[in-house]
């Protein structure tokens, strides 16, 4: 899966380096893109760092790791120890949740005989189990990259996940005086798959999707979403391609392609949240958005875990398609609230935009 992103991403990088923008702040045409040979591609594709679980990183990041001085200057231990402490907590949580709320329990007769409320709310602790597993895997993958020095860049070069330094010209300038790098603050933002606490606290499915497996989301956003000619179909087609990238199981398609159903109401609620000044009302809109995001991820996440279409159908019937009903009810509520709460931008604000 990661190899697919790396090789196709490298093709995009090489193509972009032929016709870079005039200012080229991101360093599209850089030294890494000169004389890329077969062995360079092979070592980039099959390097152990991120090969199985990610993170996805560009060829330029791989090249900088080898030929730039940052990996030799940075001290990875403080970053890695912080991650390992998180992993220890996630491991405890994983074993507890796996003992009390195993995923396959929902296919048993005992689960079918439980009350509707129990069957409906079972998805929340099950998704906690899934998240803990993903957090452990991705955090350990990040630790591997950090200990190798991959993805280390000066903070003032504005590195972002997947891309690397947004201000690559500053990166090149700093490399001319490597002795001064010891006074620079460096980080591994480029290879951070997931900001766990931001993901848990956000009140938007869109935000959660961008934070979840962030480096992979960067690839889909830059090379798929922004390049699709039909803007109205970008989100649906990107989600469909993401499902196919994960595998050919029906559960992936069922999971990803139903996300827009929850976004119908979420987009409206987020605007209510942003335009509300009253602290209590703002907190209520925040909680509603957080509930919808959590329900969306937990409910559709069951499809991601079960994968088989028949098993998905069995589960949805057992919970009486409650997640779909919640999404539709919230959309109707959002449309109703829109008639009375929506604040249209004034003429001055429209001109400013």
Give me the count of strands. Answer: 4
Shape: globular
Question: From the helix content, strand content and strand pairing, which structural class follows?
Answer: mainly alpha
Q: Please work out how many helical segments DSSP would assign.
A: 19
Average pLDDT number: 88
Question: Roughly what percent helix?
Answer: 55-70%
The first-to-last residue Cα distance is 40 Å
β-strand percent reads under 5%
What is the radius of gyration computed over CA atoms, rounded to a whole number of angstroms? Answer: 23 Å
Q: How does the major sheet shape up?
A: 2 strands, antiparallel
Order of helices and strands: HHHHHHHHEEEHEHHHHHHHHHH
Major β-sheet strand ordering: 1-4
Low-confidence spans = 348-353
Walkthrough of the structure:
This protein has 19 helices and four strands. It is mainly alpha-helical. The protein has a domain at 224-345. Helix 13 runs antiparallel to helix 14 (250-257), helix 15 (259-275) packs antiparallel against helix 16 and helix 15 packs parallel to helix 18 (322-341). The longest helix has 28 residues, at 279-306. The two termini are 40 Å apart. Mean pLDDT is 88; it is low at 348-353.
